[in-house]
Amino acid sequence: MARPAPLSGFPEWLPAERIVENHVLDTVREVFELHGFAGIETRAVEPVEQLLSKGETSKEIYLLSRLQASEDARSDKQLGLHFDLTVPFARYVVENAGKLTFPFKRYQIQKVWRGERPQDGRFREFVQADIDVVGQGSLPYHFEVELPLIMAEALGRLSEIGLPPVKVLVNNRKVAEGFYRGLGLDAVEETLRAVDKLDKIGPSAVATAIQQDAGATDAQARACLDLAAISGSDAAVLDDVLALAQRTGVSHPLLDEGIAELRSLLVAAARRAPGTIVADMKIARGLDYYTGSVYETVLVGHEELGSICSGGRYDTLASDGKQSYPGVGLSIGVTRVVSRLLSANLTSATRSVPTAVLVAVLDEAHRESSDVVAEQLRARGISAETSPDAAKFGKQIRYADRRGIPFVWFPAGSDADGNSTRHQVKDIRSGEQVDAEPAAWSPPPADLRPGVLPAVQD
Amino acid sequence: MARPAPLSGFPEWLPAERIVENHVLDTVREVFELHGFAGIETRAVEPVEQLLSKGETSKEIYLLSRLQASEDARSDKQLGLHFDLTVPFARYVVENAGKLTFPFKRYQIQKVWRGERPQDGRFREFVQADIDVVGQGSLPYHFEVELPLIMAEALGRLSEIGLPPVKVLVNNRKVAEGFYRGLGLDAVEETLRAVDKLDKIGPSAVATAIQQDAGATDAQARACLDLAAISGSDAAVLDDVLALAQRTGVSHPLLDEGIAELRSLLVAAARRAPGTIVADMKIARGLDYYTGSVYETVLVGHEELGSICSGGRYDTLASDGKQSYPGVGLSIGVTRVVSRLLSANLTSATRSVPTAVLVAVLDEAHRESSDVVAEQLRARGISAETSPDAAKFGKQIRYADRRGIPFVWFPAGSDADGNSTRHQVKDIRSGEQVDAEPAAWSPPPADLRPGVLPAVQD
User: Fold this and answer.
1) A142 contacts in B (CB within 8 Å)?
2) How many domains does one find in chain B?
3) How far apart are CA A312 and CA A265, in angstroms?
4) Does A394 fall in a domain?
């Protein structure tokens, strides 16, 4: 084949980059499991009518067809690749409701596909890492407090490998809806959609949109913008909202409920993740199924990348007709995070292979004795491989060096004069070479596996 | 939504089943990394012409189209979902050759898709776990010895969770081709394709096929069947091949080369995995790109399931015109293995959630003190969750019981008479309840994570 070119929007990593991605995946999985979330995977495909039933993402769906569909295949349902993990999860919950225990807490780490135009941080194939809690019939509010804190903990752990701090921006649809209705504005969806564009089109265009699409007066539109301008990381921000409501004569039970919910989130966040959670009244989220808390997350210093972890509370995503399954969840855009870690040189792996020790081969007739050394090391959890060929030792050391393998092992044998020699292991970084026993020697813990470290900034 | 039905051929696991699958995936990944294989992932899609260029699998490909393809999309390449991990890996190697070091050893664990008719053990979406070694220009034979032994080690480790023993069946295309050519039969592909059907259609139909498709005489066809009938797990089997060659007057340098290669594999296997590797002269593999060793693997007692780990040596899969990239690799059919572990009740998980401790909540006003206990446990690597509600303790214990969570924690507080109480933890299996400190107590190691154990057979 001719040298193939990459496909735009379908990122692939080199081995050392994949070590960074795996570290991110292992870290978030560990945090999710520490919090009691069970891992599931759903199939990559859903019937298209299932995918189309949710929101405005239909244009992004990849449809499937079989290259040589036969008669029996014509009756197959039209399938598409899932574009997120929330819609398949909702289907999984309804399909398996009789076999699950509620509230059901699950994490799910999988690829998703969207036929969007690729941009920086926006891909056609990418990995998401989701957590959701779903109840049967009802779901207590406290999960809306816990879940963003779990995501803040998972992303916070990645500071060890160079991820900048995150800010989780939270809002509550009840605050916005209660405020709009208290103002006399009942076109809530239209108003939220306009406010959601604030960062893109600016306040005066948003005001115009609220007036045109939601039928607001100039004063109502200004009040909506005033609300959207409120943000802050402690409960005092809610006093700003209350003051605005008083000034504009707004009062609505939904507003009170939303403020009480936001307050308990901010109080818990002040203890568990001080400074990480920011109440931001302009966060509205594009999708229309959120009914309570909504979340977006920015990387400090990389805000232009967009949200790296979003979600919210949904009361109506899943239902089987008899029973509703309200839930709350967030989704990390793993590929967006990893691509930024790599492209901005924030993080790197200490080597491109898991191997800690290359066992040298004197000549092909002695390959087995080298294999035995490697087996003894592996039996104690030390990644080891036998040299691919019996080239001169200098060449075998260069093999290790090119991959970042820190140690080369020289098996016991006999030298050119027929004198027996002992096992020796060489740290090829320092050049230090010492006697060692294959059944006892271990590398320093830091060399056992590839490290993933913050890159040294110039 | 109405209760959705599963899609045939697209398996999904319940949480406790997914714990079994994750254990299998973690185990094989650990073995691959111990042997120095670097993990990569390729995108799920390839240009269709790339997928079509290899063998006879074209009919099984799923093509992609965008639901609302716009003008700019018309010029996009036609994409399809990959049907294995070998073809994408070959493309990855050629695409990134300048950034990789050779021989390049990689593992790859991903889903693949085939539009085949679903059957027991045969799916439309399934997970494969592959290892391959690829050289630039050349690749030493010893990798053809090492790779099946690594797979035997990975699958052998799964005996801990109830996987039956495996037999890796090996053959060498050079033996068959050398023997056929020595017989005067130059239609090697046709003969191999006929022999490959031996188990399905029986010897007399194979003999007829060899005569019709490969133009063989009756005597030649019988000799091919005699060769295919030879199998055994030690090097003595090669004496049978040599005796057959002598009896039928066959001599060919390729036959000698193949026998020498097989011999060194069987000698190494006798030391490293006695009884696991079986030379079987009827293994031919459907795909036409293998040029040396070929491998299939059966689960002892479940032979009708078909091969659970197959592969071989390929000299010509990847090339960029200037350079060839010969390789050898095997692929575990993870979904086939896991579905059998589950459907035959060979294995089960001890619980359906990672949680080791449920921290009870006295009342909602005291939720925070329960959260603090859970945080202290998690800080020491113990999976803990706070009870979703402040129901009666009996109900909270049933919450734990239904999920298999072994311990329930009762935080310090005060009882109904206002006397202060100490932290206590209850093993809900034995009923034993003891005082404990959140900063010091740990569960027994066996309870720390969900266990994956061989099921007790009746």
Assistant:
1) 364, 367
2) 3
3) 13
4) yes
Q: Is residue B290 part of a domain?
A: no
User: Around A74, how many Cα atoms within 13 Å sit in the side-chain half-sphere?
Assistant: 2
Measured in degrees and rounded to the nearest 5, phi and psi for residue B297 equal -140, 130
- Alpha-carbon distance B387 to B379, whole Å? 18
Q: Please tell me whether A290 is known to bind a ligand.
A: yes
β A166-172/A277-280 pair status: parallel
Task: List strands edge to edge, sheet with A407-410.
Answer: A384-386, A357-359, A407-410, A424-427, A433-435
**Inter-chain residue contact B19 with A39, CB threshold 8 Å:** yes
Chain A residues lying within 8 Å of B97, measured CB to CB: 3
How large is the ipTM? 0.94
A398: nearest CA partner in chain B: B101
A237 in any annotated domain = yes
pLDDT tens, position by position, B234-270: 889 999 999 999 999 999 999 999 999 999 999 999 9
DSSP-derived 3-state class of residue A304: helix
Is B29 one of the annotated binding-site residues? no
Report the pLDDT value the prediction gives residue B338, as an integer from 0 to 100.
98
Average confidence (pLDDT) over A19-28: 98
**Residue A423: CATH number of its domain:** 3.40.50.800
Å from A364 to nearest chain B CA?
10
Length of chain A: 458
The secondary structure element, H or E, covering residue A341 is helix A334-343
B chain contacts of residue A42, beta-carbon cutoff 8 Å:
12
**Together in a domain, A133 and A21:** yes
Indicate the range of A35-44, A293-302, B62-71 predicted with least confidence: B62-71
**A269 inside domain:** yes
Q: How many residues does chain B have?
A: 458
By CA distance, what is B123's nearest residue in A?
A43
Contact call for B43 and A10, based on CB within 8 A: yes
Using a CB-CB distance cutoff of 8 angstroms, which residues of chain A are in contact with residue B443? Answer: none
Instruction: Determine the structural domain holding residue A13 and report its residue range.
Output: 1-154+300-334
Q: Answer whether A77 sits within 8 Å of B7, measured CB to CB.
A: yes
Least confident of B46-60, B108-122, B199-213: B46-60
**pLDDT tens for each residue of B177-193:** 999 999 999 999 999 99
Strand A79-81 with A231-232, pairing: unpaired
Mean pLDDT, range B304-328, rounded to an integer: 91
Band of residue B57 on the pLDDT scale cut at 50, 70, 90: low
Mean pLDDT of A231-259: 95
- The Cα angle at residue A363 between residues A361 and A367, in degrees rounded to 5: 55
| pLDDT over threshold 90, residue A433 | yes
CB contact under 8 A, B353 and A105: yes
- For CA atoms A293, A299, A303, A307, give the dihedral sign: negative
* Bridge partner residues of A306 (DSSP): none
Do residue B219 and residue B128 come from a single domain? no
Indicate whether B251 and B395 sit together in one domain.
no
**Binding residue per annotation — A107?**
no
Q: Which residue of A has its CA nearest to B19?
A: A39
Both structure tokens of B361? 């909540």
DSSP structure class, residue A167:
E
Residue type, B289: Y
Closest CA to A131 of A380, A399, A310: A310
The HSE-up count of residue B215 (CA atoms within 13 Å, CB side) is: 7
pLDDT digits (tens, 9 = 90+) for B138-155: 999 999 999 999 999 999
pLDDT at A93: 96
**Confidence (pLDDT) at A76:** 66
- Top residue of B8, B20, B23, B43 to mutate, by most chain A CBs within 10 Å, is B43
Q: Of A20, A34, A131, A376, which to mutate for an interface test with B (greatest number of B Cβ within 10 Å)?
A: A34
What are the helix and strand counts (H, E) for chain A? 16, 21
- Per the CB < 8 A criterion, the answer to whether A339 and A299 are in contact is no
